[in-house]
């Protein structure tokens, strides 16, 4: 499944097509391999993990000692003393209540994963190709029904925009403002992160809106933080 259109139309800031066509980049014609993207993302995301481990003395802070043989009980170490239910209870073993775990986590384990650069490039190309298919974009939750063409190509004058109101007007003209508003925090239900509780600073999952691909040297719109949800 991939985009098969050879050319795409160029639109002005007013949302009207101009008498110009550009060839669709070959990256949008690449095969979409969800298995490769998932494999690469899973392995690369492991490189940001913080090492953790179990205490060296966890489950071993007891005076337990084995009773030896001849008592018709297991030779697992048992807590000394009497007068409490803890005395005589097995300890140390991973099968015991309050005992140490088997093969505890260590900080020097292999936390990182190496991924071939060819696989990383393949996953990047496949992910970019998926962004050019309207069905997949709509399935992800984007509102692109009013966008005249997808992916949308605008003329070079858009890169010279400096005012936020001009950027918003352009987004409205091409039908992309609805998608921008759908990802604003005040217009959609709050989605709590699985790893964050409400009292913390960033409890709301921030979703990604439209992506503008521009010339970094000439464009100032992409750095305008007032246009929310546009990256």
Automatic annotation (TrEMBL):
The keyword Transmembrane does not apply. Keywords: Ribonucleoprotein, Ribosomal protein. This is 60S ribosomal protein L4 C-terminal domain-containing protein. Belongs to the universal ribosomal protein uL4 family. The keyword RNA-binding does not apply. It comes from the Eukaryota. One of its GO terms (molecular function) is structural constituent of ribosome. GO terms for biological process: translation. One of its GO terms (cellular component) is ribosome. It comes from Oikopleura dioica (Tunicate).
């Amino acid at each position: 499944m991939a985009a098969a259109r050879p050319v795409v139309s160029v639109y002005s800031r007013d949302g009207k097509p101009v008498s110009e066509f550009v060839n669709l980049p070959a990256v949008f014609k690449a095969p979409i391999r969800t298995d490769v993207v998932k494999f690469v993302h899973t392995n690369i995301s492991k490189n940001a993990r913080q090492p953790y481990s179990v205490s060296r003395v966890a489950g071993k802070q007891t005076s337990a000692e084995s009773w030896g043989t001849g008592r018709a009980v297991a030779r697992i170490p048992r807590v000394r003393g009497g007068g409490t239910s803890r005395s005589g209870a097995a300890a140390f073993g991973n099968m015991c209540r309050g005992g140490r775990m088997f093969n505890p986590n260590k900080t020097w384990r292999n936390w990182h994963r190496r991924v071939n650069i060819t696989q990383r490039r393949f996953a990047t190309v496949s992910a970019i190709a998926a962004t050019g298919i309207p069905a997949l974009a709509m399935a992800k939750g984007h509102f692109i029904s009013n966008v005249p063409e997808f992916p949308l190509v605008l003329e070079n004058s858009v890169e010279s925009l400096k005012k936020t109101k001009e950027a918003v007007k352009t987004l409205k003209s091409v039908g992309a403002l609805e998608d921008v508003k759908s990802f604003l925090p005040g217009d959609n239900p709050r989605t709590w992160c699985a790893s964050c509780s409400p009292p913390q600073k960033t409890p709301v999952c921030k979703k990604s809106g439209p992506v503008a691909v521009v010339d970094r040297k000439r464009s100032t719109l992409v750095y305008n933080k007032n246009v929310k949800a546009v990256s």
